[in-house]
Structure prediction request, 531 residues.
Amino acid sequence: MHGDNTELVRVRDLHFSRGTKHIFRGLSVDIPRGKITTILGPSGTGKTTLLKLIGGQLRGNQGTIHVDGLNVASLKRRELYQLRKRLGMLFQSGALLTDLSVFENIAFPLREHTDLPEKLISHLVLMRLHAVGLRGVRDLSPAELSGGMARRAALARALVFDPMMIMYDEPFTGQDPISMGILIELIKTVNKALGITSLMVSHDLAESLSISDYAVIISEGLVVEAGTPEQLRSSKSEWVQQFLQGKPDGPVPFQAAAPDYETELLGSLDRSGS
Amino acid sequence: MINYVAGVGRYWIDFLASVGRASLFLLNTLTALPSLFRRPALLVRQLHAIGVMTLSIVLVSGLFVGMVLALQGYNILIDFGQENRTGTLVALTLVRELGPVVTGLLFAGRAGSAITAEIGLMKATEQLSGLEMMAVDPFKRIFAPRFLAGFMAMPMLAAMFSAVGACGGYLLAVVALGVDSGAYWSLMQSAVNFIYDVGNGLVKGTVFGFVITWIAIYQGAESIPTSEGVSRATTRTVVYSSLAVLGLDFLLTAIMF
Prediction:
């Protein structure tokens, strides 16, 4: 995909560290327009951090991130906020404002950024709520929603401004099968019907790959493999196969790095005997 | 020895860095204040949450503190035949010192901890990140209304504490102990200077409101987004605010009186 003019997000040579921990060490990845792209990788590999870097909530130490041709790191605060109005983000927790009802949560971005008449706001919100199947719970508070409903409400809020891209942070984590099925269908429908770009980070391989047009596996700060789900499944990389098939041992060892087992056991025996 | 020096150096560098972060945070909050002219409803809601909701504990405490001051004052002054001056003692103690200080301590415990816990939980549940990603500035939407509300509410609460305290003193001294009602109020009125005593007391309340709300909001925004992190941040708010109130009170008293 590199060099393709149709990419909406272009990450080049991205370095990012937290304290002494290097999260990205020269990451380069493209997110194509109008497609569903999934970023996969082991826990703690920086998938959510990548979304925050793309959204400008974090700044990389080195390298560039372009979103729709704009270099995110060089944007002034106002320009960054203009860009964010064109991005939607679905947080793992939903991130609904707990002091507002479901309806007011969806209306929140409209009230903050527009002077639309109340009637129009009401129509726009009801349309989004209907699309995610939550028109009937508009007056409930977020605390009264199930986890799946909260994510659907958050999706309705992310859609209210007709964004060019939605970023999904672990959308399927902790969902029951029905909620998961609904979310999968919604993400697919939103992508196809509205023609927006979807960028998803996920652990749930089967679900996310089933709707993805393109997937990127990252580990230890670099892209391990990228391509269509079929290309990934037929990858010859042992690492990729271990990850996709969930094997407990392989190139990613079962045992965390530790001193030699035998030496350690015998050493402790020697110490206790002396 | 070198390790000790390095440890002390690291501590001071961390301390100065955190002072710098808190100052920048305050600057960003102050810069966001003008946005409240366009959204006064945000301020009104916080004035209710921070000011009105703290009123009951302040009024009840004020009443009891006034009564205790009157009782102690009466017991001492009666030995000198000056029990009519109980009102003066109660009023001066309240408006100069106990009004702003006790209200500050109560405000830190009631409103400061609530502000920190609310903002900390908003951070832990990604609501602050969510606002940022919706292109809504948390400084304008969350921090500035709370800061201004705390800053405005604190001197008003301190004034009400003193007023109710004076009434509590009246109840005890006049109604219960038989001090002359006219003497209680008139001697109080002649002894208390509005600018020098009440004014300085209000200045203290304003300074305490500024510092407590700053600490509370900053601790919430900087808290580690876990239940333990929010709990620690809330504790820090109460401890730092209480110490700041007592320390600043000494400083302000030395300057003012």
